[in-house]
Amino acid sequence: MDIKHRTWLMISFLFMCLSLEFHVSSGADTISANQSLSGDQTILSAGGAFRFGFFKPGNSSNYYIGMWYDKISLQTIVWVANREKPVSDKYSSVLRISDGNLVLFDESKVPVWSTNITSTTTSSLEAILLDEGNLVLRELSGNSSTSLWESFDHPAHTWIPGMKMRLDKRTKVSQRLISWKNVEDPAPGLFSLELDPNGSNSYFILWNGSQSHRYWSSGPWNENQKLFDDVPEMTQNYIYDFSFFSNETESYFTYSVKNTSTIISRFYMDVTGQIKQANWLDSTKSWFLFWSQPRQQCEVYDYCGAFGRCSEQTQKSCDCLQGFQRKSEHDWSLQDYSGGCERKTQLQCQNNSAANGKSDKFLTNSNMALPENPQSVAVRSVDECETTCLKNCSCTAYAYEDSQCSIWSGNLLGVQQGASDGKTLYIKLAASEFSSPKSKRGTVIGVVVGSVALVVLLGLVVFLYLRRRKKTIKTTKAVEGS
Ligand SMILES: *[C@@H]1O[C@H](CO)[C@@H](O)[C@H](O)[C@H]1NC(C)=O
Ligand SMILES: *[C@@H]1O[C@H](CO)[C@@H](O)[C@H](O)[C@H]1NC(C)=O
Ligand SMILES: *[C@@H]1O[C@H](CO)[C@@H](O)[C@H](O)[C@H]1NC(C)=O
Ligand SMILES: *[C@@H]1O[C@H](CO)[C@@H](O)[C@H](O)[C@H]1NC(C)=O
Ligand SMILES: *[C@@H]1O[C@H](CO)[C@@H](O)[C@H](O)[C@H]1NC(C)=O
Ligand SMILES: *[C@@H]1O[C@H](CO)[C@@H](O)[C@H](O)[C@H]1NC(C)=O
Ligand SMILES: *[C@@H]1O[C@H](CO)[C@@H](O)[C@H](O)[C@H]1NC(C)=O
Ligand SMILES: *[C@@H]1O[C@H](CO)[C@@H](O)[C@H](O)[C@H]1NC(C)=O
Ligand SMILES: *[C@@H]1O[C@H](CO)[C@@H](O)[C@H](O)[C@H]1NC(C)=O
Ligand SMILES: *[C@@H]1O[C@H](CO)[C@@H](O)[C@H](O)[C@H]1NC(C)=O
């Protein structure tokens, strides 16, 4: 068995060497017009900083084509081509140059991603992975080459040194750094970073690409101090160089690392809705979080979804308001809380045949930051405020502060627990939700009674068994004795 084990080890070692050789032999930094990339094949940038090929994020069953650091043991994706269109089999999918573009064909030979440029060139093309982490499609003529398309112009969620996050002032369109949908899905999520399209030289973080749902701003670039006004911690130092460029047609911010052989650094728009900067620490083989904004998780717009509750005090930032449950357990487990929560029990007022004596009630939630979009109602007392909400079926909650009545209709967004100047929010729930503690106690009693009964029953069985056995033994003895 030992020998068998050793043989197996040797075979797998040999196999590893073989597959290693395969990688190295295909480890060029270019895909030329007559080549293709498929399965485990990858290309490696000339200095060995970045690798490009198929990858599978986490436990996902989907494959994507993208780029990651080669010198880092923890696979960290910096760019993804087919963010929204994964392939299911990397061996029958092919990336190659086709009709003047770099195109990914899926297992059915259907193009799912393309550099999508219209070029009229007839000369030879190649795709090259540069050591700064830029994939370039270029045209070769003689010994010179012209870039036709660059991954640096099509950012995914990561902003690496040398990349420019641009605003085209003529079209007022900004490039966006967009978060992943969840930790295993690189499809564009809800959070994005971009330069103000109005040209204020500030970066904004937006929710769902909407300027009216902007929840963080860097403040304008300050050319004298070489930093953004609301990011004073971003001072020039011995590690980075930051610069901001602006002329009539475009503006952009870029940064570089002074010594790229010692520092691996990246900015990324995280699934948490925060822009983060992290540096690789070789000693611990992990990313060290250097900086992140907005600093408080609960400042991220609608982070916990409808009827979710955000808290800075607990390790898990999101949970559901009492009386509500997670809409999608699966999404929540992948850190996508945007689906929020749903009622455990429908409100009575939503039931047309609601004449069963029970009306809806309000649950008192204290120490809360109140939800988005309140509507104020002119009433004279807290009772009148409550009645207003109770009578209107679309009303889901009310608050009464400083003789001001506010009501909310529909989804409750941005509820935060344990806010500094906590307020009291009264949330409408079905009356049956209020008897649940009682039924819980009932269950506990039931369990206790059940256990006691079981013990008694077991005791009885054992007792009867022993008695019978004693009797049997006695009988046997009697027989033996005779
Ligand atoms: C592929 O093309 C390159 C130049 O574009 C050439 O040097 C190479 O020999 C070609 N390889 C094959 C297998 O045709
Ligand atoms: C993948 O699945 C395994 C086992 O089911 C689990 O332990 C692990 O945490 C999962 N990884 C991720 C990234 O979800
Ligand atoms: C290429 O661009 C066109 C229009 O700009 C778009 O309709 C098409 O879906 C794109 N194709 C791919 C494969 O991205
Ligand atoms: C091509 O390379 C040769 C030598 O390597 C050089 O003499 C020539 O000027 C180059 N041509 C162009 C167009 O750069
Ligand atoms: C841009 O400026 C216009 C006019 O001043 C204003 O209406 C608009 O809201 C601004 N947009 C943003 C994104 O700030
Ligand atoms: C995001 O915005 C789009 C329209 O731009 C809308 O269709 C979509 O429902 C929005 N997503 C969410 C989660 O609200
Ligand atoms: C602005 O700068 C870019 C280079 O970053 C250049 O291509 C462009 O022509 C410049 N525009 C003007 C109006 O000078
Ligand atoms: C970068 O760091 C390495 C290792 O510390 C050092 O040998 C090299 O001289 C540095 N390069 C620069 C440009 O400072
Ligand atoms: C509406 O009320 C009726 C009668 O009380 C009940 O049978 C039914 O399940 C209720 N429906 C909902 C959606 O609560
Ligand atoms: C209920 O509240 C909504 C939203 O505040 C309002 O539009 C509607 O008119 C109200 N309905 C009644 C019957 O008051």
TrEMBL record:
Top-rank taxon: Eukaryota
Protein name, as recorded: Uncharacterized protein
Species, as recorded: Pistacia atlantica
Phylogenetic lineage: Eukaryota, Viridiplantae, Streptophyta, Embryophyta, Tracheophyta
